[in-house]
Structure formats: structure tokens, C-alpha cells
Amino acid sequence: MLTRSREDLREHAKKIKAIFFDIDDTLRLKDEEFMPESVKDVFRRLKEKGILTGIASGRAYHAIVPEVRELGADVYVTINGQYVITPSGEELYSNPIPSDVVERAIEWAKSENVELVFIGSSNVALTKWNEYGEAALPIVYGRGIIEYPKFHEKHRVYQMLTINENAESLVLPEELRQHVRLVKWHPYSNDIIPLGGSKANGIARVIESLGLTPDEIMAFGDEMNDIEMFNFVGIAVAMGNANWKVKPLADYVTKTVTDDGILDALETLGILDKTED
Q1: Neighbour tally for 149: CB within 10 Å
Q2: Residue 57 lies in a domain
Q3: Residue 274 lies in a domain
Q4: What is the mean pLDDT of the chain?
Q5: What is the predicted pLDDT for the residue at 277?
Q6: Interatomic CA distance for residues 64 and 250, integer angstroms
């Protein structure tokens, strides 16, 4: 589905020098743990054309599954733009949540009977496991997360996750809303992200260092935490399986993950030549 004319998008696509991809339900289906073979071919062909490839994910780097790392992206915008690194581990951008804000979030969570997950650059911990954490966390972070309520006293916290029975029911108090916001990613969990923090912010740091402009960037995504990224880049592509609230914000809505949506969009827009079946 097109929200801009095909001619306009194909003309704009000639300018694209870098493409960023969300992981879950964009490159691969999170629950099914399935990634189409076409994705590997896409990354190979983009590299051959000299187009930079980046991952833009809510996941921390240590939670990115091996098959995605093996795609060989040039840069990783992780933790919803809070921490940006190269495949060799070079830190390009770091924006932890201030410790006093973390402390206030902990007090609020206790008052609401909400458990918290602390996301660090290379590790993760939570205040306490419960049935809602068991349902939400393993598919992204596995079952090895330790209970460490004082994680924040020893480590920088780049993002927190709420864990409770109904993520949509939570409302931050005014004092916290001045510093962070909630972005739902699971029925039992929200991301807690700094105001101004987003995948778009992380991508902006990358392209600034490369001398590129947002107009030269394309991005693929499917969820609420992709909205700022969609508003920032020159061409935004939503997956066919994307959240219904996200699709109207995209320039192009492609097929689903299982129907090789990424390959289809890149061929339709002329960035990659069509391959014969």
C-alpha cells in the first residue's frame, strides 16, 4: 500500500544511502523466532551496492539474536536509541537515564506494585520475577535475567521496563513525565524511555558522523517505538503485520515478514533489482 505515489517514492529512493531495520516483527517474527531467508540476501545485496545497513531496535546489543548479528549490519542503534555501537564494540553514543530519575521510577513502581527491569549496555536485571515477567521477557532476554533490585547502584541504566498485569493501565506521575515516557511493547510491559530518547535520536547521531541527511535514510519498522524514526527518515516503510496505529505514518506499507516484505519493498521502490522467481 502506498501513502505517497510510487513515482515519487522511486525517485526519492535514488537518494538513499543508508537503511535501518527494526528487529522484532520486522526482520524476524519474535514469537515464532522466524527470519525469512530473503533477509540475508537483502543485506548482502545492499552491501554490494554500497548502502549502509543499520539495526534500530528496542533490544540491547546483548539481546540481539545471533542470526541477526550474522547479517553483518554496519551499526547498531540499540535500547531505543540510547546506546549506539559498531559491530566491533566501538561506542558511538551513550545516553543513560540520570540516576535520580531511576530512583524516582523505582519508588513509583513500588507504590504501583510494578516490577522493573533495568537495561544496561551489556547486562540486564529485574527487581523480581513474576508470572507477567515470565510471559513477556524470555522471548527477548531469555530466562537468565537475575533478580538484582540494586542494579542501578552499580551500573548505568539506559532503559527500564515495567512489568505488571496491564501495561496500558499505567500512568507516570507528573514528576516522572518531565523526564521519561512509557511506550507499550507487550500487554504486560512498557519501555521507560527518556524524553527525547528514541531510535530517531540514535540514528541522527550516526548519520551526523557520516555527513548524511535524514532525507538519505530509509527505515523499516512495525511498532509504536518506530514512530519517531518514521517521522525522521526520508522513506519510512511499515511491515504488513505492523501495528494499525503505525501504518498510516509510513510512506509505504509492504507485505508481511513471512511474505518477504522487506525484499518486496526494496524491489518495488527500485533500491534492489527484481529477482526472478
Answers
A1: 15
A2: yes
A3: no
A4: 95
A5: 58
A6: 25
pLDDT of residue 1: 58
Overall average pLDDT of the 157-168 stretch: 96
Question: Residue 142 sits in which domain range?
Answer: 99-194
CA dist., res. 218 & res. 119, Å (int): 27
Q: Are residue 104 and residue 185 in the same domain, yes or no?
A: yes
Entry pTM: 0.92
The DSSP element (H or E) to which 20 belongs, if any, is strand 18-21
Catalytic residue among 8, 22, 74, 259: 22
Give me the mean pLDDT over the 109-128 stretch.
96
SS3 210: helix
Q: How many CB atoms within 10 Å of residue 198?
A: 25
Please give the pLDDT value at position 196. 85
pLDDT at 93: 96
Cell (9 digits) for 12: 526519492
- Number of domains present in the structure of the chain: 2
Distance (Å, rounded) from C-alpha 261 to C-alpha 60? 24
What is the Cα–Cα distance from 117 to 126, expressed in whole angstroms? 4
- Residue 156's Cβ-side half-sphere holds a number of Cα atoms within 13 Å equal to 12
CA nearest to 169, candidates 113, 95, 224, 218: 113
Query: How is residue 86 written as a grid cell?
Result: 559498531
251 is catalytic: no
Do both 229 and 103 map to the same domain?
no
